[in-house]
Amino acid sequence: MTYQSIETNKNRLILVKETLFSGQSFMWNESDHEGGIYSSVIDGSPVLIKQDNPYSLSVSVEKNELFGIPVQSFFEHYFSLDIATNSLFDDEFAARYPDLAFRLLKLQGLRVLRQDPYETLVTFMCAQGIGMSIIRRQVNMLCRYFGNEVRVADGGRDTPLYSFPAPSVLADADPALLRRCCNNNSMRAGNIGEASRLLALGRLDLQALSDPSLPLSEIRTELTALKGIGFKIADCIALFGLGRFDAFPIDTHVEQFLSSWFSIGAHQKGLSQKRYLHLQEKAVELLGESLSGYAGHHLFHCWRTTEKNMKAF
User: Fold this and answer.
1) What is the rounded CA–CA span in Å between residue 107 and residue 304?
2) What would the pLDDT profile of 66-108 be if each residue is shown by its tens digit?
3) 89-104+246-305 sits in which CATH class?
4) CATH number for the domain formed by residue range(s) 116-228
5) Is residue 6 within 8 Å of residue 111, measured between CB atoms?
């Protein structure tokens, strides 16, 4: 496998590690043999990525196309290199919040990924109320037990990687084994199995939900009809798996920075649907509608890394 360079459009910055490990994806792993190399499986093929410079990355993949798209175009889309992140926070924002705007400048290369919708749905169903290291462990187990093994030469060593399982596989998974991969949570395992069955039977159409003309409210209604998915998980799926950069998920960290940085709401125990929608409305007013979720992920990562000094992703 040889590397090919992917340069950003119009010299747009990219931070590869921060992007892959910012809490939006749990399918990437850093090489144990060579620092700065990140591996995953996309379209059944092993992929290695490394950062070249602030404006480019290199990818190594066996195929010329992924999901029928040339590799260069696929990764430009995957890393949302069409989005001008320097416009996420305007001059008015910088004038009102100069210290925060300075911190955000260092994260300008943070990209919101356009991930596989089903992979995103399941991984965020795994993410309810637990830390990122446990989420990553669950996803790794799902791939090991139910995905397909592929091998890649990583740092001169033959290394196994595992694809994300297909809906039909998790739909028919042994309940005990699936529960083991879901942190021994029977309800979570059952919900993931049920969502996978609906998708395998064609009763859930994630591609249809990817239609950019659909109102976010309709997407949320469809997703929250599934057991185990509330507003926050639905908005995460929309943002990271359906390409809806106007979706603004709210968890504890988001609730905290909205209150601390912008005086939007006050941290309370529990988050009702009414309060969730109120906070979301105020956040969209602050950040603008079209890229509020994209900007929100920058704020989320900034809060965790610079305010809370958290290291685990």
Assistant:
1) 12
2) 999 999 999 999 999 999 999 999 999 999 999 999 999 999 9
3) mainly alpha
4) 1.10.340.30
5) no
